[in-house]
Amino acid sequence: MDFFSRCRTTEEAKSVFRMLSKHFHPDRGGDANLMVELQKQYNGWNPSNFNWQSQFPDNRGFSTQTENLLKNMETNIKILENAVITKERDIQLLRLELENFHEMSFIQKILWLFLGDIYSKS
Questions:
Q1: Which of 1, 43, 36, 35 is nearest to 19 (CA)?
Q2: Which of 17, 49, 56, 76 is the most exposed place for a label (fewest CB within 10 A)?
Q3: Is the dihedral of CA 104, 109, 112, 116 positive or negative?
Q4: For residues 4 and 46, what is the distance between their CA atoms, to the nearest angstrom?
Q5: Against a cut of 0.70, is the pTM above it?
């Protein structure tokens, strides 16, 4: 059993040792063999023993789960950017239609509004 595999600093190792020694100490009803093993590991532990490879398998400081979350966020950002571009295009088209509408005669405007209403209902 590796008690200090997730400890990165001396303070973390000391905290883990104190917590587990209260639990495993024979005077408190714990297992003497586990207490001896805990003491051996604590005495032999140093910050360079922290296994970054097991904690962060992709070698970039991120776990696979975090990496997947970042990829999903990047995908969502691209989707939102595309939606904004589409909305901007729609606004430009509406502006062009409005400019064309202002240039139409009264009869053309009535027909345009009437025909647009018919097409939107079908």
A1: 35
A2: 76
A3: positive
A4: 10
A5: no
Residue 47 dihedral angles phi and psi, to the nearest 5°:
-55, -25
Q: How far is the CA of 28 from the CAs of 31, 35, 74, 90, 118, in angstroms? A: 9, 11, 52, 73, 85
Q: Rounded to whole angstroms, how far apart are CA atoms 20 and 3?
A: 9
> Which amino acid would we find at residue 46?
N
Residues 6+ apart with CB under 8 A from 50: 5, 6, 7, 8
Per-residue pLDDT of 21-52, as tens digits, reads 888 888 888 888 888 888 888 887 776 665 55
Q: Give φ, ψ of 32 to 5 degrees.
A: -65, -40
